[in-house]
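pipeline: protein-struct stage 2 | run 1193 | Alpha/beta fold hydrolase
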Amino acid sequence: MSLHPRVTSLQTTTLSYQVARPSAAGTPVVLLHPWFGCWQFWAPTMGHLADRPCYAVDLYSPAAGDWSPMAGPTGLANAVLAMMDAERLDRVDVVGNSVGGIVAQVIASKVPHRVRRLVLVGTGASTAGALPGFAGVVDRWIKVVRENGAADRAAVEAAVRMLFTISPDEDTWETYVQAVLRTDPAYLAAVLGAARELDLTPRLADITASTLVIRGSEDCARSAGHSAVLATGIRAARSIEMPGAGHSPMVDHPMEFARLVSDHLSARLP
């Protein structure tokens, strides 16, 4: 699979993303990664969606400039919409995991006419009730950053490890860890803080896209209750649980996850 790196200019910074099959005929798919994950998480999914243009957004890339207007799900949603405008993507399918799923909800509720299908993975309408194991690891990372002004590798590795149930090969693991380590930790913390303060429950009714909610049974961050709120609040939503999968099932169950996404994006509307 050939990838084409691209950049969209924003008011004070830039947004980077990788494009696969830009000339394919299917509805474009925008992929939004989790915090402590990275755009590379989507490589297997993009490879499976062979008939569609895929846009894997690097949500960390605004940290290279003046990131203050982008530092939260709302700012990042505006950045993704700017990318869609620059690419002339009038209507897309959106797949978002964790914080990426929160950004996806903001987009789908703000401009419902521009989102045809939606896949929300390991996420919720709010972060309230996040499972204590993952919340503790994130809190430790934030504490290290506040005390040292920089990210500690051990704290980063602990956070990344919580996202999936497998042990990637050494090179893949290093790619994942470096994506976090090379990003301004103040930016990462600011986005996390804004996400924790946001409750999108009242906006779920504004989402008109046919929606699939996916949760891994071994997700250590989001509970079945988070999925239930999404499935109940979004009018055209259904929820499934992937046995044995973690918070980011595109990594630990890539083929099964890709099939679920492909089937949802290809299914005929009732």
